[in-house]
Amino acid sequence: MTNSTDGKPGKDAWGEKENKQRVVPTLASIAEQVGVSANTVSRALRAPNTVRPELRKRINIAMEELNYVPNRLAGGLSGTRTDIVGVVVTSLYYSEFASIIDTLQSSLLEHDLQVMLANTRYNPDQELKLVRSILSWRPAAMAIIGIDHPPKVLELLKSSGIPTIEMWDTSGPVIDTAIGFDHQAVGAAQARHLIDRGYRTLAFVGSLRENDRRARKRLLGLETEAIKAGITPVITCTEPIGGSPDLGEKLVLDLLQTHPGIDAIACNSDVVAFGVMRGLRKLGKRVPEDVGVIAFGDNEAAACITPPLTTIRPDRERIGRLTADAIVARINGGEPQTTIVDWKLVARESTQRDAVEPTNAG
Amino acid sequence: MTNSTDGKPGKDAWGEKENKQRVVPTLASIAEQVGVSANTVSRALRAPNTVRPELRKRINIAMEELNYVPNRLAGGLSGTRTDIVGVVVTSLYYSEFASIIDTLQSSLLEHDLQVMLANTRYNPDQELKLVRSILSWRPAAMAIIGIDHPPKVLELLKSSGIPTIEMWDTSGPVIDTAIGFDHQAVGAAQARHLIDRGYRTLAFVGSLRENDRRARKRLLGLETEAIKAGITPVITCTEPIGGSPDLGEKLVLDLLQTHPGIDAIACNSDVVAFGVMRGLRKLGKRVPEDVGVIAFGDNEAAACITPPLTTIRPDRERIGRLTADAIVARINGGEPQTTIVDWKLVARESTQRDAVEPTNAG
DNA sequence: TCGCATAAAGTTATCGCTAACGCAACGCTC
DNA sequence: GAGCGTTGCGTTAGCGATAACTTTATGCGA
């Protein structure tokens, strides 16, 4: 693309690179240009009011001219702390955690904290590898989805000595600080809602990966509540792969073949429910008259499909914001603290069989 | 939570911290424990076969025992290059770029490259701040959404001397390497499809932020193609805020009030289309008979709503994967190169007015 | 006018690691 | 058995910033 026979002047930055090796400016080069010591330049950045205004201005101009970008590898090594916050999620698909990250990142930005992101895809080996990798950057804090981690991950996080915020789930022992909710209670609320609406034969459908402990907690809540109400055992129809509409459709076709009597389906996620409802339509089953469908997640499309989907809405923005707050607080010496964030059961038409009052939880 | 009067032994890592300041192990501490020089420990990590197997084993055991995590601030400062890849996106909501990031991150992981993520939320000032912040970590490469950046961002990226991959859009001058497609062609394809299906009065509805250059390119393509076909000017009905179903519903109600003759709507995103279709239903308009709806993005729910939504499907996984490949190639001395990634017009029922062959593009 | 607090800069010593070089000990060739 | 490449490790010198001192002006009261 660029080749050395092309000697045309006024080339862009890449062309220039070929002639002399680009030298990335350092504090020292700024200092030299201005005629001061490197430390003065450093002060102009970190403690501007300890440098004469006139000098400070000249330093700023020089930095601007040379496109100086501080080297935080050096800064972090020398200083006490970096401004990195490690963020570990289990999935990025289907809006599951995207808006948590979105809110978290922009809240952290206000405190000049930089997100380093990792996605484990529900794989514990990868979780260990990624946590180790992030810790090697000496972050100021870690935020991680879930409270069920491999022992080695727990050990690393604990011995790292940095604040660790566990998000999304609070139902169990935590490392330090947790912000989320109890997933078993969600499952219980789903069951109660279906039962209140007159449904009697419950199934659980969706993705259920070996390491998705939260989904298992929701399923447990569903089963426990069903048993309490004297309902027949909940039929589970799951696959250990990621949730998608196609998976939902496939599973519901299987399910109704083997269990034609099912009259209510709790889905592990909204996107699975989308496929479940498509599958039910193909089978000629009406929702909510023949089969009720409830899900979890409150995907942006949940209110737009036909019929609108009853689902659980976790407050993702709030979790993101509170996590950012907790990180800042812990960095500044605040105490660890577990915070429960409300969720809501949003009753829509997909479970509107009888006009019983909806059961909300919080 | 933990207080110093609690002297109970056998406490967890956090308790221990209060007694003696936790000392994070370094290469030197491992070296001391094993009885070798620090450099030998470093070699055992970076070039294991230059260390005697027996000694290597002892070193590994010591590292495991002390929970050693290398300090890459030091490593990056000392070595030539870090393993960070900066990733800058404009949005995280609504699956817009989540699966690009997902694929990109897991592809990079295979090469032991770590993602540092930033989200500009379509704000150019924040883009500058974030790019500068990421560059200060001396990443090995940058991947960024779009090709329209503020001048200062271009300057920084060019003068940084690192490979920069621009994703999603290829219709214009690029910094280095670009992987994406031509958004104007997408708009043109949308118009052609609607016209082929017999629609004659076109509108463009959705979020249109000042700095969303890609949306403007799609709109331009839509208008250009409409004019070519001798169709009345495209009515635009937009808001400079993020897209959502609620926005779509609001805009379509406004639109049909002022322009009742509209018979086709191109939406800037699928989630907006979800709301548009809900709004049309409220107005008693049938889709696709009275009004055709086409969108952009191929959200996971697009095939599940009623009627299924005709939309444009960009190949996000492919963009993510190719971006990772390009990063690795460029780091290893490969040449810059622009790659066009195919997209597809997925014709579904929301535009099924006449049985004309669908117009696909690639 | 002296003394001393204060402001504004310079000096020096790390931070933890890697790259480059140095140097024994060993084995191989002829 | 002298010469020479290899192997395996130690030594030394930075990387680019920051923190802790030290030094040099400056001001101000007694």
Structure characterization notes:
- The first copy, chain A, is of the alpha/beta class and 362 residues long.
- Chain A has three domains: 13-70, lambda repressor-like DNA-binding domains (434 Repressor (Amino-terminal Domain), Orthogonal Bundle), CATH 1.10.260.40; 84-182 and 316-342, Response regulator (Rossmann fold), CATH 3.40.50; 183-314 and 344-351, 3-Layer(aba) Sandwich (Rossmann fold).
- Chain A has helices at residues 13-19, 27-34, 38-46, 53-65, 72-78, 98-109, 124-135, 151-160, 183-196, 213-228, 245-258, 270-282, 316-331; strands at residues 84-89, 114-119, 141-145, 164-169, 177-181, 202-207, 235-239, 264-267, 292-296, 310-314, 338-340, 343-346.
- In chain A, helix 2 (27-34) crosses helix 4 (53-65), helix 7 packs parallel to helix 8 (151-160) and helix 11 (245-258) packs across helix 12 (270-282).
- Mean pLDDT of chain A is 89; it is low at 1-21 and 355-362.
- At the A-B interface, helix 1, helix 5, helix 6, strand 2 and helix 7 of A face helix 1, helix 5, helix 6, strand 2 and helix 7 of B.
- The first copy, chain A, binds a DNA duplex (30 and 30 nucleotides) through helix 3 and helix 5.
